[in-house]
Amino acid sequence: MELKLIGKVKSDQGFAIAIEDDYKEALTAMDGFSHLMVVWWANQVDQPDLRETKVLDKPYLPGPERMGVFATRSPIRPNPICISVIDVKHIDYERGIIETWYIDAEEGTPVLDIKPYYPCSDVVREPALPEWCAGLPVCIEDSADFDWSVFFNF
Q1: pLDDT (0 to 100) of residue 9
Q2: What distance, in Å, lies between the first and last C-alpha atoms of the chain?
Q3: What is the pLDDT of residues 18-36, one digit of tens each?
Q4: pLDDT score, position 143
Q5: What pTM value is reported for the model?
Q6: Which DSSP string corresponds to the chain?
Q7: What are phi and psi of 75, to 5 degrees?
Q8: In whole angstroms, how large is the CA radius of gyration of the chain?
Q9: For the segment 91-105, what is each residue's pLDDT rounded down to a tens digit?
Q10: What is the C-alpha separation between 59 and 45, in angstroms, rounded?
Q11: Structure confidence at residue 2 (pLDDT)
Q12: Is the pLDDT of residue 54 over 80?
């Protein structure tokens, strides 16, 4: 199996996804999508010992003392693949740049794939969450004003 880099996260002057030249054409007909799902490789924590981590000590302040990595959104996992939903600010098709207000990935992070966000398949009307998640924003638009320091333990 071979994974192909299709772009990189840019965060030096705002947030953006810079698409590799070979994949610029894949942006065709992205007009009108307000949100995209970005699949990225957490390369900064891709270390053999971290890939063996199965349980994390209290990653969330209101959460349990120990949590399995599959119960977290931590980039520390057996395969450090992450998914972020971004809101599209602008797409420069000629330069292959998708501008966004925010993405929770570092400068230079490899982007593996981009998919359009479809409410018909990506929205759950009434999701259930553990009690310790009470108080989290109910949507991405509310996340910008949320004080994440009261939630994360890092």
Answers
A1: 98
A2: 34
A3: 999 999 999 999 999 999 9
A4: 84
A5: 0.92
A6: ------EEEE-BTBEEEEE-GGGGGGGTT-TT-SEEEEEEE-GGG--HHHHT--EEE--BTTS-SEEEGGGS--S-SSS-EEEEEEEEEEEETTTTEEEES--SS-TTPEEEEEEE--HHHH--SS----GGGTTS-SSHHHHTTS-GGGTB--
A7: -75, -10
A8: 17
A9: 999 999 999 999 999
A10: 15
A11: 85
A12: yes
Q: How many CB atoms lie within 10 A of CB 79?
A: 10
- Euclidean distance between CA atoms 95 and 39, whole angstroms: 20
* Rounded distance between C-alpha atoms, residue 101 and residue 118, angstroms: 19
Q: Tell me if 83 sits within 8 A of 37, measured CB to CB.
A: yes
Q: What six digits make up the tokens of 144?
A: 């910008």
Q: What token pair was written down for 56?
A: 């994390």
